[in-house]
Specification:
Blueprint: E1 3-8, H1 11-15, H2 18-31, E2 36-41, E3 53-57, E4 60-64, H3 72-77, E5 89-92, H4 97-100, H5 118-123, H6 128-134, H7 138-148, H8 160-169, E6 176-181, H9 190-197, H10 199-213, E7 217-222, H11 227-242, E8 258-263, H12 273-280, E9 304-308, H13 309-321, H14 323-327, E10 330-331, E11 334-335, E12 337-344, E13 350-355, H15 360-367, E14 377-382, E15 389-390, H16 401-406, E16 415-420, H17 425-439, H18 445-458, H19 465-478, H20 482-486, H21 488-497
Helix pairs in contact: 6-10, 6-13, 7-8, 7-10, 9-10, 9-11, 10-13, 17-18, 17-21, 18-19, 19-21
């Protein structure tokens, strides 16, 4: 009987030696005259356990975590191909608390099979939403998205249906769907995991969006630092076309939708939708003035729907199960699930998909397991380098758009970075200014110059905080896009919640 072993091939696992593990397992099995089938998969998102390998047994998949090539002889001695006990055994994968206690819908298939196996995708419920969309005209599709309450998962949380309706109503025969896959926020990796582990879900969501808006062409704007995602997406697009899920006359419906892949140039500001469009058109990535909105005049001056990866990946289930189903998850106007990404000084870093409404404290304790160092948590930054720093007294805040807005914060892309008690928050605030100065497109003065002046002020032994506050107000009111207007968020939150760190004192290095 052939044993089946699942080994991830995502970027993190490869960096940690997954290829070497696969090679060692294959060579050892051959030497022992044992038949095995090695399946390279995406990641399940338990980054703390990578490379996480699994073996198919009669009882289910058995997992082994943090495996290196040096562990392979011991695994064979422990009869791991039959699910044998080893010091790195994690038991049945589905019983690992980190995974079992999540509610996964968007990421439910990641890690289960070869991400480019289109038959496996379909066998696990893939294309069910697109089949429903093929039976509907554009307006009813958009109505399901409206009923769902889906909001953009890229940062602002803007209602998806409003964008969809606007593009649908635009009178122009040429329209586009653009997927913003320029995932550049520190501590974020959900886009990467889904593109590397379940690319057909993104393709399905984009095709549905194309049908809903009467667009016939889509573009995935992928950040240049994701070479594995590029390879996987290209292969998946080719296979989707061959299977009739992309291209002309999709599944005999008479509808057309094509997807092309565009690799960005490494600019953080191109995560802003208008700078992204400039880059797609072959120009320097500089933000455009709004209006006109991209929904009216976007790519090449045509109506364009721009959504990020996770937003589009939520769409297939909305069509397959209904908008009301999606609206039943979460709380208030924060509906559905959100893939939060834990990193920094955290014991169990990785991806956690849960419905909106869980408290930040529960996320950090129940899934993160506290700090890896054992030191108390001093602050958590949510939403990337332009997100607010929150102290422990605010950790009972529910993870919803509304609750975080009330704090002057935001959920952003769901990245959660943990900082321990040794962190100098003045150094972190200074880093926010430095980051903005480095990544600014340079179009507007408040962002281009303000960030430089802010870093200079905070570098002094006794910074003038009143001057910093004035500078922040100018950046908020005068910047052309969120790059400049949101840079004050981490600065002001650090000053508000950690005032002692801004007293005159020698500075420490940022964590």
């Amino acid at each position: 009987m052939t044993a089946r072993v699942y080994i991830p091939a995502d970027m993190l696992s490869l960096a940690l030696g997954a290829d070497e593990v696969a090679k060692a397992i294959a060579e050892t099995a051959k030497a022992e005259d044992t038949d095995i089938d090695i399946v390279r998969t995406g990641s399940r998102g338990a980054c703390w356990a990578e490379p996480l390998i699994e073996v198919e047994t009669d009882a289910g998949r058995v997992a082994y975590g943090k495996i290196s090539k040096n562990d392979v002889p011991g695994l064979f001695d422990a009869e791991f191909l039959q699910g044998g006990t080893h010091e790195k055994s994690l038991g049945l994968t589905e019983d690992i608390p980190y995974l079992k206690n999540q509610q996964r819908f968007i990421f439910k298939n990641c890690g289960l099979y070869d991400p480019c196996d289109i038959d496996a995708y379909e066998a696990h419920g893939g294309f069910a939403g697109l089949r429903v969309a093929l039976q509907k005209s554009p307006k009813p599709i958009t109505e399901e998205v409206q009923i769902s309450g889906l909001r953009g998962r890229g940062g602002a949380g803007f209602p998806a249906a409003i964008k969809w309706r606007t593009v649908l109503g635009a009178e122009d025969p040429q329209k586009y769907v653009v997927c913003n896959a320029d995932e550049g926020d520190s501590g974020t990796f959900s886009d990467r995991l889904i593109m590397e582990g379940d690319p057909f879900r993104l393709i399905e969501g984009m095709v549905i969006a194309g049908f809903a808006t009467r667009a016939k062409n889509g573009v995935i704007y992928l950040r240049s630092e994701y070479p594995i995602a590029k390879t996987v997406l290209r292969k998946a697009i080719t296979r989707a076309k061959a299977a009739g899920w992309l291209g002309t006359n999709i599944k005999g419906s008479g509808r057309t939708f094509n997807i092309s892949l565009f690799v960005g140039g490494g600019s953080y500001v191109c995560g802003e939708e208008t700078a992204l469009l400039e880059s797609l058109e072959g120009n320097r990535g500089i933000v455009r003035a709004k209006p006109p909105l991209p929904a009216y005049e976007g790519l090449f001056g045509k109506p364009t729907l721009i959504n990020n990866v996770i937003t589009l990946c939520a769409v297939p289930d909305i069509l397959a199960k209904g908008g009301a189903w999606h609206a039943s998850l979460g709380t208030g106007r924060s509906t559905g699930t959100m893939p939060f990404q834990l990193s920094g000084d955290v014991k169990y870093g990785g991806l956690v998909e849960v419905p909106f409404g869980m408290s930040l404290r529960a996320l950090l304790d129940d899934f993160g397991g506290g700090t890896r160092s054992g030191l108390p948590i001093k602050a958590v930054q949510i939403g990337g380098p332009l997100g607010a720093y929150l102290p422990p007294r605010l950790f009972d805040t529910p993870l919803t758009y509304e609750a975080f807005a009330a704090l002057g914060a935001g959920l952003g892309h769901g990245g959660v970075v943990v900082f321990n008690e040794n962190t100098d928050m003045r150094a972190q605030a200074r880093y926010a200014f430095e980051f903005c100065a480095h990544e600014s497109c340079g179009k507007c003065t408040p962002c281009r110059i303000g960030a430089v002046r802010g870093a200079e002020i905070l570098a002094k032994d006794a910074p003038d905080l009143a001057l910093v506050e004035d500078l922040c107000e100018v950046m908020i009111d005068g910047s052309a896009c969120a790059m400049g207007s949101m840079t004050p968020v981490p600065v002001q939150s650090a000053i508000t919640h950690f005032p002692d760190d801004f007293a005159a004192q020698p500075q420490k290095m940022a964590q």
